Amino acid sequence: MKKVSFANYPGIPLSTRGALERYLVNGYMPGGFLTAVFTNDLFGAVSRADHWNQQALLDIVKFVYNEAPMGARGTVEKMEEYCSARLAEWAEHDAKHGI
């Protein structure tokens, strides 16, 4: 499974990094703010962002653009399909390793 690197995005808060990693690596849908970012809903992202994410929005958008797979962004439906695929990969991994 691919690791997520935030080395080029130092402004992203730790809590947001965790949510991004849980979505991109583990297949767990993020909350409303990140869902708005991943679906290109600028108004929704700005209106849902807390103080820290408002300040980090540029880094978060750059991260999504540069690091997130195309299949993980665009619409809520694409996000849900991405999550289903990631969860299926984890289930296969666990079954293969007797977990």
Notes on the structure:
The structure is a single chain. This protein is mainly α. The chain has one domain (14-96). Helix content is 66%, strand content 0%. It is built from 5 helices and no strands. The chain has helices spanning 14-26, 32-38, 42-48, 51-67, 76-96. Helix 1 crosses helix 5 and helix 2 (32-38) runs antiparallel to helix 3. It is globular. The mean pLDDT is 94.
Tag the structure with descriptive keywords.
single chain, about 100 residues, mainly alpha
SS summary, helix count: 5
> What is the total tally of β strands?
0
Low-confidence parts: none
How many separate structural domains?
1
Span between termini: 16 Å
Give the biggest beta sheet: none
Average pLDDT level: 94
Approximately how much beta-strand content do the residues carry?
A: under 5%
Q: Can you tell me the overall shape?
A: globular
**Helical percent range?**
55-70%
What structural class is derived from the secondary structure elements? mainly alpha
Radius of gyration: 14 Å
Order of helices and strands: HHHHH
